[in-house]
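Entry 14. Structure prediction run on the chain below.
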Amino acid sequence: MNTIILIAADLAAITVLTFALYLRRHRRRDLVVSYLGMNVGVLAVATALSGSAAGIGLGLGLFGVLSIIRLRSTELAQHEVAYYFSALALGLIAGIGVEPLWLTLSLMGMVLLVMFIGDNPKVLPAYRHQTVVLDRAISNESELHVRLEEVLNGTVHSATIQELDLVNDKTIVDVRYAARPSFPATAQPGHPHGSPSQNQLGFDQPAGALTPAPQELPVQLTPAPGTRPSSTQPQQSVPTSAGVA
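Output returned:
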């Protein structure tokens, strides 16, 4: 009965680990298949060997043998390695079946909890790691830190020069830094909606274009003394200013 409960608990745990945690955060489908297959395979082998006297020893040996697979496959990031070993640990814990039952379930829950907290994007969000190629050969450490902080807009904690090319004037640096928060542009004083638009300032006119002439205002002629103004007398408009042709 406990074996069935442990198998069901392992399937539920690896589903949460791969789909709710890893795939939701990192979106790499090939490793989801790897984690699922590895976990279920280890669970099956550990369950089959748990009845023998050497079951625990073989299980730990299996853990060590499977851990070298990543050396023959594509390179994995450190957080992917953590998920890899978590999938292995869940399969071994459920397959070996440590007594009492609540201890086994607690250990599996602890693995999930650690991965949920440790890989949470809100934990140390500003800390970054990057390889930077500079267009100058910089050997001075202080000057290098200043240049990297300008390029990365952050506070450099460590900078390891991997390659200093004096011939091609190039520096390759492995940098660990904390990114500075970026602030949105604030509205300029005196304008309710930030900076005035280009149309309001007249900056949308092409270079060398002439500004349009002011609007001509109609001017009504004053009738001569002793004459009555005629309602049918046409009104002439006199331009107040002329535009530049």
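The CA atoms of residues 91 and 118 lie 20 Å apart.
Filed with the rest of this week's runs.
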